[in-house]
Amino acid sequence: MPVNLSPIDKAKFVAARRAVDFVESGMRLGLGTGSTAAWMVRCLAERIQEEGLKVVGVPTSIRTAELARQLGVPLMSLDEAKWLDLTIDGADEIDPDLNLIKGGGAALLQEKIVATASDQMIVIADVAKEMVQLGAFPLPVEIIPFGWQTTKALIEETLISMDVLNHDVTLRMNGEAPLVTDGANYILDLHLKRIGSPRQLSLVLNQIPGVVENGLFIDICDKVVIGHGDGRVRVRDINSGETMDERLDLEPADNIFADLDD
Ligand code: 5RP
Asked: How much is the pLDDT for 260?
């Protein structure tokens, strides 16, 4: 592990490292997107180099594909793999039922397709991502650019009858221009503050023409690995109901991490 990491990066690192222990040779893996998922790709690359682990990854974004290639993680497309054994990805919020908000990194569409095409999804996160209820983090919704203002207005109208605390909707920008996703779409961020019924909201949003997908991941995540800055990790499995508390050694830097600053 690189030295001089902030406590939050240490928490992300230990969550990622612990999750990679669940990877077995021969697996086809979904590789998530974001800073925590980037740690996972590095830890995976380390196991490939040091143990000769044989895996192939399906990246959920151009960014993740670039990092994986740079580190020597073999890749294929989802169409080539068709079905995956395991996806490991980060999240913006996690509720007690392991429902998620994702898409802070604008990759929610590929992330949801890949996670849904996997036997198992493990979410890795620092402890700040655990919430009693979803909604403090703005909910990302991927929409097609054509008629985006009409889609925004339809979403705003829909939100009036939903169990949410706030109704503001903003177009995600990249400087002066709208942010464009890997799928050539736009992202609307729904500032809801509290989502009373995530399942209902997800269904209703996906009925609106122009909406491609929303960032609520309902009943998709099987296991979470939550990291703390002091090396503690908690693994929770929603299917078995088991929770395990462990502590990982925060080891000194080694080659695979030395030159990377993400
Ligand atoms: C990208 C995502 C990320 O997994 C999510 O935003 C968490 O990112 P990070 O690990 O950097 O906090 O959903 O679309």
From this structure: 53
Residues of the chain with pLDDT under 50: 252, 255, 259, 261-262
Q: Are 244 and 18 in contact (CB under 8 A)?
A: no
CA distance 160 to 155: 9
Convert the pLDDT of each residue in 195-213 to its tens digit.
999 999 999 999 999 999 9
- Regarding whether 245 and 119 lie in a shared domain, the answer is yes
The residue whose C-alpha atom lies closest to atom 1 belonging to ligand 1 is 105
Q: Please report the pLDDT score of residue 42 as a whole number.
A: 98
Task: Give yes or no for residue 36 CB within 6 A of ligand 1.
Answer: yes
Active-site residues, by number, are: 111
* Res 261: pLDDT: 47
Q: Which atom of ligand 1 is nearest to the CA of 35?
A: 11
Q: What's the Cα-to-Cα distance from 240 to each of 222, 223, 229, 244, rounded to whole Å?
A: 9, 10, 27, 12
DSSP assignment letter at 129: G
What is the CATH number for 49? Answer: 3.40.50.1360
